[in-house]
Amino acid sequence: MNEQPQDIYKCSVCLKEVKVTNNSNGTLICCKREMQNITFDRLGTFKLQSLKQKSALVQFLNILSQQMPKNQQDNKAAVDDLIQKNSKVALLLAKEIAVENQGFDLNKLLMNIIDDLWVSILIDYPQYIAQASFESKLEIKKLLTDAFELDRRALNTLEAILYRNESTLEFDAS
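Request: output the structure for the sequence above.
Response:
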């Protein structure tokens, strides 16, 4: 079965979602209003995603790769390769930003990442986990719970790095 790519549309009034093939024409109407295309809000293109979304995607792929059966090791290797490439790209971008911008502030960068993680931990994940529970999608709930835990650990690590970096700066200043 060849499945065609689909776009996801959502009604802003009743919140109904509809999937249509992305080569469909016309405008979808619901509740006397035009439905909004939320495909990229859900799936996103990697370049347009926030750091929080990229982190969640990488963590999701990592969890998924750990749960693959033995007969799908080629897929696991491909997922691991994707994660490594994304990590390398992120590192190169960080180095490039540091070189281009002499006023680069590691503490500010860490605070932005920490803020994003706090939003995901306090708002996003609980909302998605509750929705998965409501829809009885236990596998998705487990994946989201695992991603939540990974973000929480990442947050603790980043806060420790930020604290050490600030302590070092204060010590050097005195």
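The beta strands are 6-10, 17-21, 29-30, 33-34, 36-37.
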